[in-house]
Amino acid sequence: LTKNLPKPMLKIKDKPLLESIITKFKENGFINFFISLHYKGEIIKKYFGDGAKWDVKINYLDEKMPLGTAGSLSLLKDYNINKPIIVMNGDILSNINFRELIQFHNNKGNAITVCVKEHAIEVPFGVVKIKNECVEKIDEKPSKVFHVNAGIYVINPKLIRRLKEDSYMDMTDFIDSLKEMRVTINSFPIYETWSDVGTKSDFEAIKNIKK
Predict the structure, then answer these.
(1) End-to-end CA distance of the chain
(2) Which residue of 35, 176, 190, 194 lies most exposed, with the fewest beta carbons within 10 A?
(3) Helix, strand, coil shares, percent, the chain, to 5
């Protein structure tokens, strides 16, 4: 599917994933966008241009080599960023209210806010708890709930300036490195719909839901 297209340009209902993301932000009052590009980035540039068609302003961050979700933010150094920014992966669809997310971030005084989504995993068998060969308990098809990283973050601009230029860094590693600074890192739960187009099966499932 991505041999000739960058993944954010895969279409759901004849609209690229990235266009749906931008449209959702626009509905929430956001008009300034930075799109980091590497793989077949010229396709994205040609489609969106400067964003005027959507009444938004788009700037592009060209990665000479893949820099990772956090590493690409180092390319913002040439821009006067003085407010918290929302960072979002380009292969996610969600009905999250971005305005509420920013308000939460500011009200809590967070340095970074990490959006999370509940994900339940059910064991399709009875789970036997054993101690010293003795059966203590049998849980029939138990379910475990995890909070998973939703790929959406809010970051204060002063933290972005800590990133090294042209150096690869994933967001998870960046957040781990900040723990030593004792900055406030809080989670924001997403209760709205959320889909991560991580695999071909994920993409096909979303297409079927959207029909």
Answers:
(1) 19
(2) 176
(3) 35, 30, 35
Q: Do the beta carbons of residue 172 and residue 149 sit within 8 Å?
A: yes
The residue to which tokens 């339940």 are assigned: 120
Residue 58, pLDDT score: 97
Q: What are phi and psi of 48, to 5 degrees?
A: -95, -25
Q: What is the pTM of this model?
A: 0.88
Per-residue tokens: 183: 């900055």
Alpha helices (runs of H) in the chain, residue ranges in sequence order = 17-27, 41-48, 68-71, 98-108, 157-160, 171-178, 200-210
Q: Which helix (H) or strand (E) holds 118?
A: strand 112-122
Q: How many residues does the chain have?
A: 211
Interatomic CA distance for residues 178 and 163, integer angstroms: 11
Q: How confident is the model at residue 196 (pLDDT cuts 50, 70, 90)?
A: confident
Rounded to whole angstroms, how far apart are CA atoms 77 and 86?
A: 16
Instruction: Give the position of tokens 């138990």.
Output: 142
pLDDT digits (tens, 9 = 90+) for 21-48: 999 999 999 999 999 999 888 999 999 9
Average pLDDT over the chain, rounded to whole? 90
H/E stretch holding 45 reads helix 41-48
Q: Is the pLDDT of residue 122 over 70?
A: yes
